[in-house]
Amino acid sequence: MQTHHLLATCDTVHLGGFSDQLPPALEVDSGDRITVETFTGFYVCDQAPAAFAPPELLAIREHLPAHRCVGPGSHLLTGPIGVRQAKPGMVLEVQLEAIAPRLAMGFNAIRSGWGCLSHRFQASALNFIPLDLDRNTAEFPPGSGIQIPLKPFFGILGVATAAEQRSSIPPGLYGGNLDNRHLQAGSRLFLPIFLPGAQFSIGDGHAVQGDGEVDVTALETSMNGTLRLIVRPDLASKLPLPFAETPTHWITMGFAETLDVACTIALEKMIIFLEQWAGLSAQDAYVLCSLAVDFHITQAVNQPMRGVHGLLPKTLFPQPITVSSPSEELSKSQAV
Predict the structure, then answer these.
(1) CA proximity to 222, closest of 18, 26, 61, 28
(2) Is the pLDDT of residue 291 over 90?
(3) DSSP state letters, 66-94
(4) How many whole angstroms from its chain centre is CA 294?
(5) What is the DSSP letter of 132?
(6) Residue 14 CA to its chain's centroid (Å)
(7) Residue 251 in contact with residue 336, Cβ under 8 Å?
(8) What are phi and psi of 254, to 5 degrees?
(9) Which residue pairs from 271-279 have beta carbons closer than 8 angstroms and sit at least 24 positions apart in sequence?
(10) Strands, E, within 16-152: which ranges?
């Protein structure tokens, strides 16, 4: 296993979406570790204080090549990262080992025409908010004494598909703009692979976000991370993708143009998981979901796709449900 370092530069980031036309910014082997830099705020850094807009971000804003502007979205993503063993039909396991803000400043933006209350808050507004990285908090409103604990995660984790251009704004089967606050360090995300190499990109750092992301943004900030990308041919057709695991929960995800349909999709996927991995009947799984699974609004603002996720506590089961990695299975067999 090798460790790679992927810096965010004009040659390694792309703006606005995903594209099957982009060459990999980095190629790795399955299981390699990658430390990655990401920047956010491409469209607001010219209005930002220096603490938010270091020279590297300003250089990207000024010199990003046209061919790396691949969609209409607002997100600056690092990648794509190609995984040599990845083939269409396989599963990509993304192990999130470490996530931390790289700057002591973030922003929140209200965009005209967006957000859950766009009819009420019609004017755009931009707030730059300091991050106290020593105390791991942010105060908002300024001077209020209200201290928000930071819980950093990447809003966007996704793979390219066989489409020349795809906006970074809506999430989908490929991942993308999931905005799932539970995908913090120590979590795993499972995504389907559509193209050779998987072509994985990452970005949209969030220092903290509430479920719903109701005004259209979180506390957005540039973020560093450490992750591993593992190709899983053994999981094809075995997980209701995209799917995630945290230290405490299993997570299914639903995306649709309405929250009702998104919830239905997340519920159906949870029933599938419980049938396949816990051995329950569909009806018993349905009842268990009603008794013990929490369905949360992931985000209600990424037009046109809203998101709902289901949280299944691991503590429910007398015997743990285990989706082992190939390296874990090898270690077990060698121990025997």
Answers:
(1) 61
(2) yes
(3) GGGB-SSS--EEEEEEEETT--TTSEEEE
(4) 20
(5) B
(6) 16
(7) no
(8) -130, 140
(9) 272/240, 273/239, 273/240, 273/243, 273/312, 274/312, 276/238, 277/321, 277/323, 278/317, 278/321
(10) 17-18, 26-28, 33-38, 76-83, 91-101, 105-110, 125-130, 137-139, 147-149
91-108 as b/e: b if 16+ CB within 10 A: bbbbbbeebebbbebbbb
* Coil vs helix vs strand at 322: coil
Q: How far apart are alpha carbons 100 and 205 in whole angstroms? A: 9
38 and 224 in contact (C-beta within 8 Å)?
A: yes
Q: What pLDDT, on a 0 to 100 scale, did the predictor assign at position 327?
A: 53
Domains of the chain by start residue, with CATH: 3-233 (2.60.120.580), 248-322 (3.10.28.20)
Say how many C-beta atoms besides its own lie within 10 A of residue 265's C-beta.
19
Mean pLDDT of the chain: 95
Strands 153-159 and 175-177, how do they pair?
antiparallel
Burial class (CB in 10 A: 0-12, 13-18, 19+), 195: middle
Read off the tokens for 251: 């997570």
Question: DSSP H helical segments within the chain, as ranges?
Answer: 55-63, 259-278, 282-292, 326-335
Tokens of 93: 């396991």
How far apart are the C-alpha atoms of 74 and 111, rounded to whole Å?
Answer: 12
Query: Where does the pLDDT of residue 165 fall: very low under 50, low under 70, confident under 90, or very high at 90 and above?
Result: confident
Phi and psi at 6, nearest 5°, equal: -110, 105
Comparing CA positions, the residue from 316, 263, 273 lying closest to residue 292 is 316
- Per-residue tokens: 224: 């560093």
